[in-house]
Amino acid sequence: MKQTARKLEGEFDYIIVGAGTAGCVLANRLTEDADVSVLLLEAGGKDDYHWIHVPVGYLYCIGNPRTDWLYKTQAEPGLNGRALSYPRGRVLGGCSSINGMIYMRGQREDYDEWAHFTGDPNWSWDAVLPVFKRSEDHHGGASEFHGAGGEWRVEKQRLKWKILETFSQAAQQTGLPATDDFNRGDNSGVGYFDVNQKSGIRWNASKAFLRTAMKRPNLTTITGAHTQRLVFEGKRCVGVEYRGGDIDYVAKARCEVILSAGAVNSPQILELSGIGNGARLQRLGIDVVGDLRGVGENLQDHLQLRMAYKVNGVRTLNTLSAHWWGKLFIGLQYALTRGGPMSMAPSQLGAFAKSNPNDASITRPDLEYHVQPLSLDRFGEPLHAFNAFTASVCTLRPTSRGSVHIASPDAHAAPLIAPNYLSTERDREVAANALRLTRRIAAAPALARYAPQEILPGIAFQTDEELAQAAGNIGTTIFHPVGTCRMGTDNDPGAVVDSRLRVIGLRGLRIVDASIMPTITSGNTNSPTLMIAERASEMIRADRRNVEVQEAIATALA
Questions:
Q1: CATH code at position 263
Q2: Which string of b and e fits 165-180 if b means at least 16 CB within 10 Å?
């Protein structure tokens, strides 16, 4: 792309890179202080595309350059050489504008492990629960575990399917308890997911947090702003270079630059700016500002195994939407009631289970199910012509670790994404047990009347080795990458940020997004990312007040 000019955009107290879930929260909270100026940079456009707001519209947002970065992974050995599409939101609201809308916190132990890992009790479950509640507007009102009146709307889904009710009964017959809430710190059981919707319309982070902030004079939001690199003076980050159209701009930050570009783009921007493994950067001709070996490492994701079953005697979306009159009915139902299939999150029924209840080392559920009243060969292809359901099961705490790294100093070149799925014996064992558990649920008495017939991956796969191969055939991302700029202590060679999310060894730079997770949460990752941003905004505002107090004391003593 031709460079025609370089312009100074201005000077702000804070610059936030990325207007995804975390960036929207930060923009809102930081501009609550009227004397603080904030610049929010987003590479994508506005969230004014109508399919963002219709829940089923994720089908038209994922894989669409208007809303998605269109990344792909490298060929994955664990997936039998397949490369996957790797959707990431490229629009105001980020992934909250294209994701499955599932409200999920994870398990108590996830956060207690973070606290132990960082040595900071402020990341424990008891410490983060009030942070979750503060921004929550739960359909059930305020309670011990939920908040009311916050920005982040949480509602029940607005539809039921007989096949899903029956799957729930079958799961209970297999030993899973029924639950009406996955967000109390123990998500064991089977039940319907709560969703981030408002009256049947997607409730993304842009609506929840950014639109209010954009009415304030101290927030400047620029879309179509592709960050090229961070600007440093010595070891202090003092600004951001970004491109808008054919023009390169520089914006300066008086206090801090905050990277909220996500688990793929945050490590990419760091490496482009000279922060990462020094030897790797030097090979690319990039001057090293901070030698941090952990940048881009520790990538974790939930690999989902999509098992599909043909059924008889019960209607699913496959046949309901097969004819024009069915599509007309679905459209009218949504137009009149904001309910029905067009209000569907991608997955409606959930379940959390242990992959091997006889394994004493598995102390809490390590599998999550996303169950859907539909089936297809792969995402983006037509639904099957027969009635069927899909039971996608993912490993919640994978032991495999991957990476995200730049391949060139070109800021517009996609990074190399290598999740390294199923690269450990433990993950292959859990995957095989997950497939077996799904088969036990499908064989339970409740589902027998519909004669479920496994079509993916197919009953030919039986042994541990065969099931690991089957997992490689059908496994795909469920869009939860985390961990590529993980938290840790100053003496941890793999850590990128400390427990206050400051980049280790540098000044004026924080990272606030899912990349800072030391370990992936046991569930969907969007709302944990929101919580991280809420916690970070507290830290940033507290640090600013401390600086102001110290300056006042110094002035008084002068």
A1: 3.50.50.60
A2: ebbbbbbbebebeebe
- Residue 512, annotated ligand binder? no
Supply the DSSP symbol for 82: B
For 188-238, write each residue's pLDDT tens digit. Answer: 999 999 999 999 999 999 999 999 999 999 999 999 999 999 999 999 999
Instruction: Mark out the alpha helices in 35-155 (DSSP H runs).
Output: 50-53, 58-61, 108-118, 125-134
The pTM (predicted TM-score) of the whole model is 0.96
Quick check: 426 pLDDT over 90? yes
Specify the number of domains making up the chain.
2
Please say whether the dihedral angle defined by the alpha carbons of residues 68, 70, 74 and 78, taken in this order, is positive or negative: positive
| The pLDDT of residue 4 is above 50 | no
Question: Is 480 annotated in the active site?
Answer: yes
Query: Among 454, 515, 482, which Cα is nearest to 269's?
Result: 515
What residues pair up with 308 in beta bridges, in sequence order?
Answer: 390, 456
Both tokens assigned to 314: 């019960």
**405/429 same-domain check:** no
Give the amino acid at 351: A
Handedness of CA 42, 43, 49, 55 (dihedral sign): negative
DSSP string, 396-450: SS----BEEE-SSS-TTSPPEEE--TT-SHHHHHHHHHHHHHHHHHHTSHHHHTT
Given a cut of 50, whether residue 2 has pLDDT beyond it is no
Complete DSSP assignment for 155-214? B--S---HHHHHHHHHHHHTTPPB-S-S-SS---EEEEPPBSEETTEE--HIIIIIHHHT
For 351, the domain range is 158-192+303-395+424-479
Residue at which a domain ends, from 479, 496, 522: 479
> What CATH number does residue 456 fall under?
3.30.410.40
